[in-house]
Specification:
Number of strands of chain A: 14
InterPro entries (chain A): THDP-binding, Transketo_C/PFOR_II, Transketolase-like_Pyr-bd, Transketolase_C
Cofactor (chain A): thiamine diphosphate
Strand order of the largest sheet of chain B: 5-6-7-11-10
Shape of chain A: globular
CATH architecture of the largest domain in chain A: 3-Layer(aba) Sandwich
Largest interface: A-B, 47 and 45 residues
CATH class of the largest domain in chain A: Alpha Beta
Order of helices and strands of chain A: EHEHEHEHHEHEHEEEEHEEHEHEHH
Organism (chain A): Micromonospora coerulea
CATH superfamily of the largest domain in chain A: Thiamin diphosphate (ThDP)-binding fold, Pyr/PP domains
Number of helices of chain A: 12
Helix content of chain B: 25-40%
Largest sheet of chain B: 5 strands, parallel
Keywords (chain A): Oxidoreductase, Thiamine pyrophosphate
Strand content of chain B: 5-15%
Distance between the termini of chain A: 48 Å
Protein name (chain A): Alpha-ketoacid dehydrogenase subunit beta
Number of strands of chain B: 11
Order of helices and strands of chain B: EEEEHHEHHHHEHEEEHEHEHHHH
Helix content of chain A: 25-40%
Oligomer: heterodimer
Radius of gyration of chain A: 19 Å
Largest sheet of chain A: 7 strands, mixed
CATH topology of the largest domain in chain A: Rossmann fold
Chain lengths: 329, 392
């Protein structure tokens, strides 16, 4: 087993390279994905090795990227579109919601749009406005789209390849503040042996409370669990990985054991993923709950100026505070 | 219609005798090969000097006439079906038959079309059963056909969105190496005058231009976007927009089936040869309402409609065929009879369309399905079954 230590960004890059190698119909398209390798270098070196017909620098217009990718998909290609930042996806929103998501349904299954829309998302990098948002609820609310997010290099490597191989249109959210975090990646494991794409996974086993997180918040919650353990409290952290469809099987099982549940995400709380998750856990685990399901989220403000983003974003202390509150109910 | 290659065009030749450079004072040039009175013009020169001709056999002329009459009659039948409550909505093509038949017949078998929701005439000319889009308007489906099987994309209701799909598809044609020869593939994107204000259409222009996509942008300028006149969308003739994007544009008489054919065939052949995109503005008029939900008497005057009535695409073709003795009354009567038979057949099949089973709403949301949806479907089925045998 050849494992290598890679950053999450390099793991994505390696996964994209594999996808280009494995299927000549895979094309990468987006702004600055060619010579520059993307503003985060996720496509670094790919145009050099696969040419500008496979790795396409597009004009600067997001609706154009997604709309032309729809046409390429009808033609039989498998487009992997990069949206440069979360806050720039909205010009493409109509094409994503009204076309990408609905083409298979509209055609009664005769047209497939095997598209992956990669979006670096979330805050924590000290960026200017529009560069730190968490738009996952918009997409998870849309039937016809699937939404996934990775939290570590191994998942980044395998999930991006699984998403590209899937015939479902998939919004692939990349936790940009974690691009530089390193982890072990098994580069030789066959894709069909990888952990299933649309499945949550227990990231840390525990007995006292269940913490549900995804993307950039998984690391935060694991750190919180480490701190809680020092105080004698064992948190079970579940990395949701798939946001649409949700896979709450492990969460139900866990909450029925622990009786306590905290959901954590960067996106604003109002009608965020946490709301849906809390409702489902309440329905499924009602008689096991010792306290209401609590949410730790970004506030219902626009994403604030970066000098105060540390206070906006859920952190270790806010997670632990919520866990404490589940015990004080 | 027998397929030779009647749309012969020559680039750059100067005006010859009987060639019309159709510019009247203050009006942009309009490529026209058949006047409203049914007079044949041998050739016309486009704004870039291209000479357009369309030399058809008598059989082909009669075929074009037959198409025009058929699509108008089927369209009228659909309007009637809506008025009788059998369709939820209909977007009539009345007045735009020549633009659609001309461009539709100009497509070669391998070419791909991306329609709006009004291209029933193009659909017909692709050899597709006119029943195909009626499920959408009846409300029993939302399209449901395979674009690649018919070389005709599903109707797109969001204004202009399909121009980007056409552009991406055309980029794919190029990437597949299917351009550069006479049997190469070309793509046509239909849209209207209102759509030219959409960002997607302008983005499609940019993309098609910089990627040299084998694409023809076919704009049916029918003068109105629901109620808003052309002046609310543009201050320059639409075909001139192409220049700013770096490809040729031409305005054709959209009520002239011969000119619509010649201009489209030329643009498609340029595209398939690898010469990139172009824009055709088919200057026409929506004689009816935007859709059956619309009331055009609120925003336009009768005299304007009457003026366009005099430019009717079918009347001029009939006048031409009669004057040239290409067709006689028995032919016209036989076409009318065929149109009547086909429209009755269409009506019968619309009335026979069953409503879908409610549970089918859960079908085809995802190619790979979703456990969440499976659960909702199961719950819904159980709920529905709970009424079985009851007198609800």
């Amino acid at each position: 087993m050849a494992t290598e230590t890679l950053t999450l960004g390099k793991a994505l890059n390696t996964g994209l390279r594999r996808a280009l190698e494995n299927d000549p119909k895979v094309v990468i398209m987006g702004e600055d994905v060619g010579k520059l390798g993307g503003v985060f270098r996720i496509t670094d070196g790919l145009q050099k090795d696969f040419g500008d017909q496979r790795v396409i620098d597009t004009p600067l217009a997001e609706s154009g990227i997604i709309g032309t990718a729809v046409g390429l998909a009808i033609r039989g290609f498998r487009p992997v579109c990069e949206i440069q930042f979360d806050g720039f996806v909205y010009p493409a929103y109509d094409q994503i919601v009204s076309q990408v998501a609905k083409m298979h349904y509209r055609s009664q299954g005769k047209v497939r749009i095997p598209m992956v829309i990669r979006i670096p998302y979330g805050g924590g990098i000290g960026a200017v406005e529009h560069h730190s948002e968490s738009p996952e609820a918009y997409f998870a609310h849309t039937a016809g789209l699937k939404v996934v997010t990775c939290a570590n290099p191994q998942d980044a490597y395998s999930m991006i390849q699984q998403a590209i191989a899937s015939d479902d249109p998939i919004v692939f959210l990349e936790p940009k503040r974690r691009y530089w975090e390193k982890g072990q990646v098994d580069l030789d494991a066959p894709l069909d042996a990888a952990y299933p794409l649309h499945s949550a996974r227990v990231a840390r086993a525990g007995t006292d409370a269940t913490v549900l997180a995804y993307g950039p918040m998984v690391r935060t919650c694991l750190d919180a669990a480490t701190a809680a353990a020092e105080d004698g409290r064992e948190l079970e952290v579940i990395d949701l990985r798939t946001l649409s469809p949700l896979d709450l099987t492990a969460a139900y099982e866990s909450v029925k054991r622990t009786g306590r549940c905290v959901v954590v995400h960067e996106a604003p709380g109002n009608l965020g993923l946490g709301s849906e998750i809390a409702a489902r856990i309440t329905e499924e685990c009602f008689y096991s709950l010792e306290s209401p399901v609590l949410r730790v989220t970004g506030f219902d403000t626009p994403y604030p100026a970066s000098r105060v983003e540390e206070e906006y974003l859920p952190d270790l202390d806010r997670v632990l505070d919520a866990v404490d509150r589940t015990f004080g109910w | 219609m027998a397929k030779g290659d009647p749309g012969v065009t020559t680039r750059g030749r100067r005006a010859a005798p009987r060639t019309k450079r159709a510019a009247t004072a203050g009006e942009p040039e309009l490529v026209q090969l058949l006047t409203p009175e049914g007079e044949r013009i041998e050739s016309a020169i486009g704004p870039d000097g291209t000479e357009y001709r369309a030399d058809f056999t008598d059989e082909e002329y009669r075929g074009l006439y037959r198409d025009l009459v058929l699509v108008r009659k089927l369209d009228a039948e659909a309007t009637a079906l809506q008025r009788q409550g059998e369709l939820g909505l209909w977007a009539s093509l009345l007045g735009q038959e020549a633009a659609q038949v001309g461009s539709g017949r100009a497509l070669r078998t391998q070419d791909m079309a991306f329609p709006t929701y009004r291209e029933h005439g193009v659909l017909y000319c692709r050899g597709i059963d006119p029943i195909m889009p009626l499920g959408l308007f009846r409300g029993v489906d939302q399209g449901g056909w395979d674009p690649n099987e018919f070389k005709f994309n599903m109707y797109t209701i969001v204004i202009g969105a399909q121009t980007l799909h056409a552009t991406g598809y055309a980029m794919g044609v190029h990437m597949d190496g299917k351009t550069g020869t006479e049997d190469g593939e070309a793509v046509i994107a239909y849209f209207g005058d209102g759509a030219t204000s959409q960002g997607d259409v302008n983005e499609a222009f940019v993309w098609a231009s910089v990627f040299n996509a084998p694409l023809v942008f076919f704009c049916q300028n029918n003068q109105y976007a629901i109620s808003e006149p052309l002046e609310r969308q543009t201050r320059v003739p639409l075909y001139q927009r192409a220049g700013g994007f770096g490809f040729p544009g031409v305005r054709v008489d959209g009520n002239d089936v011969l000119a619509s054919y010649a201009v489209t065939r030329h643009a498609l052949d340029n595209a398939r040869l690898g010469q990139g995109p172009s824009l055709i503005e088919a200057y026409t008029y929506r004689m009816g309402a935007h859709t059956t939900s619309d009331d055009p008497t609120r925003y336009r005057i009768a005299s304007e409609v009457e003026a366009w009535q005099a430019k009717d695409p079918i009347a001029r073709m009939k006048a031409f065929l009669t004057k040239q003795q290409i067709a006689d009354e028995s032919f016209f009567a036989s076409v009318d009879e065929q149109a009547r038979t086909e429209s009755v057949h269409l009506r019968e099949r619309v009335l026979a369309m069953p409503n879908p089973e409610p549970v089918t709403m859960f079908d085809h949301v995802y190619p790979n399905g979703s456990p969440e949806l499976d659960e909702q479907r199961a719950q819904f089925s159980k709920y529905m079954e709970s009424f079985e045998g009851s007198a609800h």
